[in-house]
Specification:
heterodimer, A: alpha+beta, Nucleotidyltransferase, domain 5, Substrate Binding Domain Of DNAk, Chain A, domain 1, 6-stranded mixed sheet, 5-stranded mixed sheet, 8 helices, 24 strands, about 25% helix, globular, B: mainly alpha, Serine Threonine Protein Phosphatase 5, Tetratricopeptide repeat, two-stranded antiparallel ribbon, 13 helices
């Protein structure tokens, strides 16, 4: 049986969800090491250990990761990546209940926002728990929302579908629209961090609840105005109880279905993980804040004919988009990478990368590797290496790196 | 102008015995066949290669076709052509040219083919093997000269024999055996007077009947070669050795000598 996991990674919490088992764990994103011994605790256990004075607590791991910071515990400096790795290992141990991480077929991690450097660290942290790198994928909360919604009943997204995510210090709004096309169906999704937000701690008091309800109602009126929504989904710690948000719920329920789902992003990520493992063709092309809005390809020779080799498909998340190919240039010392925007009004272009920096050899005696990655949804990095030609011509040291803007 | 898409390379290379080189991909296989066809005619296109094509290059259809051709008694030349056609490293015109070369090779005598094989081995820096092939070619040419009564045929064979002696002398020079090189060049001149032997003898020993202009040209060539050698990294490494203290000199000298010995053994090995 497959084993697919979705992981929602935030500064405040980490939610892990196993798709097949439908089991979930929700852990505050804190880790604590005992001062004397090399023993580690996460979540509530970490808080208890820190409160007892026997341990040193580190929280906000994602923020620490962004700053490239370290945490010094018992005179040893731990990088955020190392701490995250320990955190994830402990979470998997809890979730898998004795099963090895090597059994995981696909792990999809979802994040609110990420920069390239954090993504590399998150990949490394997850891989160092024992999971093969090729089985790890990263998507945004917007993408996870889409995967969750598409796995639900169609009446939730007959018109537009929306989502409010209320966590400790932020309130985000997402909306998606499914478009049925002639050749291919697609989904367009947008996510926004709303200026109106509040600390959910205020909801413990009546006055705080009233304020919270007013803020949410105003936000809902602003966000849901002008479009027709089939559903309003709610997720995040703030919506664990909704008795404080009577007016908001009443407004949201007008001709819409309102659903609360704890760990919605983790479930969506797990659904995507299952899709990747099964190899099923996605029914919808997704366009989100992380989607690459162009197809990237090369013209190559296969046998006697010229063919288009697609390196990156339009709609792929830049978090996850990577390509690797080996080629032998024949009669040319350059590479033309073709970029075709999905938008029919967009301009097709070809980025030419010179290979003149490589050692001069007889024709077809320089095998090159082309490695493609992304800095963001619009910036592709191309790294080309000289692999030589077997034992006839050893590989050279030169590496060509170029950044290509897609639009 | 194009980009050839490459499949994954083999995890384990196929060793070409005569070239002493590992082949890692279908492109390298084609390269070897195209550039060294004479070294692929015997002891190469066998089950060991076909199994490697099947399991390492993951081309089972090609491997099966080659096995079937072999069972049907297909010639080595046609097997090589088949590989070149199927792998598409060379285009149609190049494969046709290869086919033409193979037809030309069929017209060559045994002695010529062995001589060409020797030259290919020399190119591949397999000097001992190349020398043996040249020696074999000399024996075959002697036999042909002995049998033929046609004057013109004898002249052509002698001319070729002289050429082979020159090639053997070049190998001896590579292996620092000046005396033997000198002997071979004299044999070459005596077999059939040729300018190449005379020029080589001048380069080896400074003797030979050459005009002043030619001598000056060869002297300049020698000086240029010496200058390049002095500027080479190896030369610099050895000369800087003597700036060190005596203990370091001995240690580094042992390393350099060890490296030279290994290189010599490699070029002298079979």
């Amino acid at each position: 049986m497959s084993l697919n996991i979705g992981l929602d990674l935030c500064d405040d919490y980490i939610i892990a969800y196993e798709y097949e088992d439908q089991s979930m764990i929700n852990v505050p994103a804190v880790i604590c090491r005992e001062k004397k011994d090399d023993l580690w605790y996460i979540g509530e256990g970490a808080y208890r250990m820190a409160l007892s004075g026997k341990g040193v607590l580190t929280d906000k791991l994602l923020s620490l990761l962004k700053k490239g910071g370290t945490s010094t515990i018992a005179r040893k400096a731990y990088t955020a990546e190392q701490l995250l790795s320990r955190m994830l290992a402990a979470i998997f141990w809890q979730l898998l209940n004795g099963r090895s991480v090597e059994l995981i077929d696909t792990l999809v991690i979802t994040l609110h926002h990420a920069e390239k450097t954090e993504m590399d660290s998150i990949f490394n942290a997850a891989a160092s728990t024992g999971i093969d790198r090729s089985k790890i994928h990263l998507i945004s909360h917007s993408d996870a929302f889409v995967y969750y919604t598409l796995s639900q009943s169609k009446d939730l997204y007959t018109n537009m579908a929306s989502l409010f995510d209320l966590s400790d210090e932020s309130l985000s709004f997402y909306k998606m629209k499914a478009i049925r096309g002639i050749s291919r169906n697609s989904v367009v999704v947008e996510g926004t961090d709303l200026e109106e937000n509040f600390r959910i701690g205020i909801l413990k008091k009546e006055s705080g609840s009233e304020l919270g309800d007013r803020i949410m109602t105003d936000a809902a009126k602003k966000c849901l105005n002008g479009d027709i929504y089939s559903s309003v989904m709610l997720t995040g710690k703030g919506f664990e109880r909704t008795d404080w948000a009577k007016n908001f719920i009443e407004f949201a329920c007008r001709k819409r279905r309102v659903i609360y789902e704890a760990g919605l992003f983790a479930i969506g990520a797990a659904r995507y993980a299952a899709q990747l493992t099964s190899g099923e063709q996605p029914q919808y092309l997704i366009f989100s804040d992380t989607s690459i809005a162009a197809e990237v390809s090369l013209k190559v020779s296969i046998g006697e004919r010229t063919a288009k080799l697609v390196l990156v498909s339009a709609g792929q998340s830049w978090y996850d988009a990577r390509a690797y190919v080996e080629l032998l240039p024949h009669g040319q010392d350059y590479l033309d990478i073709d970029v075709e925007p999905v938008d029919k009004f967009g301009v097709r272009k070809s980025a030419r990368i010179s290979l003149e920096a490589f050692e001069k050899r007889p024709d077809r005696c320089t095998r090159i590797s082309v490695n493609i990655g992304f800095e963001d949804a619009n910036t592709m990095t191309v790294e080309i290496r000289d692999l030589g030609f077997g034992e006839f011509y050893p590989a050279g040291d030169a590496v060509i790196t170029e950044s290509v803007r897609l639009s | 102008m194009s980009l050839l898409l490459c499949r994954q390379k083999a995890e384990v290379p196929f060793m070409h015995g005569k070239l002493n080189i590992g082949i890692w991909s279908e492109q390298e296989l084609c390269y070897v066949i195209y550039h060294y066809p004479l070294l692929c005619l015997k002891d190469f296109l066998d089950d060991r290669l076909f199994d490697w094509i099947d399991t390492q290059l993951k081309l089972p259809k090609l491997a099966d076709a080659l096995r079937k051709n072999r069972r049907l008694g297909e010639s080595a030349e046609n097997q090589m052509l088949y590989i070149l056609q199927e792998c598409n490293y060379y285009d149609v015109n190049e494969v046709l040219a290869f086919s033409g070369r193979m037809m030309e090779l069929k017209k060559c005598s045994g002695a010529e083919l062995v001589h060409m094989e020797g030259r290919l081995l020399y190119q591949a820096e397999k000097y001992s093997l190349a020398y043996e092939k040249f020696a074999e070619s000399i024996r075959m040419l002697d036999e042909l000269i002995r049998r033929t009564k046609d004057e013109e045929e004898i002249r052509k064979l002698s001319e070729r024999k002289a050429e082979v002696f020159c090639d053997m002398a070049v190998i001896k020079m590579r292996m620092f055996d000046r005396n033997k090189a000198q002997e071979l060049l004299i044999s070459s001149e005596l077999t059939y007077y040729n300018k190449r032997a005379v020029r080589l003898r001048y380069l080896v020993s400074g003797t030979g009947e050459l005009g002043d202009n030619e001598k000056a040209e060869l002297d300049a060539m020698k000086e240029e070669a010496a200058r390049k050698a002095r500027e080479s990294q190896e030369y610099q490494a050895v000369s800087s050795l003597f700036e060190k203290d005596s203990v370091r000199i001995m240690k580094d000298a042992r390393q350099i000598l060890g490296r030279w010995k290994n290189n010599y053994r490699k070029i002298a090995s079979v």
